[in-house]
Amino acid sequence: MPVHSIDDQNSLFYLHSAPTTESGKTFVFFNALTGDTGMWEGVIGEALRKDGHGTLSFNFRGQADSPFSPETAINAELIIEDARRLLSHVSPTNVILTGLSIGGLFAAQAWLRGLGDVDCHGLVLINTLRRDGPRLKWINDALVRCAEVGGLDMFRDLFAPLLFNEDWQASNRDNFLNTQPYLPLSKSSGHYNLLSNAGETDWDISYEDLTLPVLLITGLQDRVFLDHQDVERLSRRIPNVERVDMADAAHLLPAERPAELANMLLKFAKGV
Prior knowledge:
- By secondary structure, this protein is α/β, with parallel strands linked by helices.
- The protein contains 10 helices and 8 strands.
- It has a single domain (3-271), classed as 3-Layer(aba) Sandwich (Rossmann fold), CATH 3.40.50.1820.
- The chain is 40% helix and 17% strand.
- It has an 8-stranded mixed beta sheet with strand order 1-2-4-3-5-6-7-8, sandwiched between helices.
- Helix 2 (43-50) runs parallel beside helix 10 (258-271) and helix 3 (76-90) packs across helix 4 (102-113).
């Protein structure tokens, strides 16, 4: 199992495939807080690698196969520095940073802080843009409280119809709302650590300084995080941005529309 060891108790699980063509890019994927590499490595990763591109997916500390020490608070600062450390270790070529939800924010912040000798060609933000405010704070606190009461099963039952598009809902409804009792999420677990700490992230970054090519993808069926006015306002602050709005997708777009997303990434790679 490929891991980047940080110390005796902390490490990052990752999967890396280098480009197989001279013009190939390496897509570096940043998960959402409750995600893992599996969301990228299937349809999306296979399509990119088939076209000669490379991929690098990794799990934050606290996600699958990425252990952390008990005293560690897995917050935005730690995740961003972990990502920069991993990129320095792997040294991928012709990078395109690609992040889902808060993962896009982490990717943008990593680039803004500098990636050393890693050559970055572009940034893809998937359902990332949002504004700090009482609504976002309430949502983040509610997600943590939900996990404390009923674990990730309650979290999924309550929020899945708001985070996935209607096609996905229709196909997957039978996998939810079963009769088993809900169990609280252990406060020593990685997912709880991530939800309770990384949810305090500062979203007011220097969008004007994102001078590299940026692809902004928005799922219009996102019923939790999408605020059209905020996306419009924040996207205008990005100097070199290309926008794609998907009427048939919601928040967790890589799981809902992986083939369509792969095609958008391939097109973006040719343009940069």
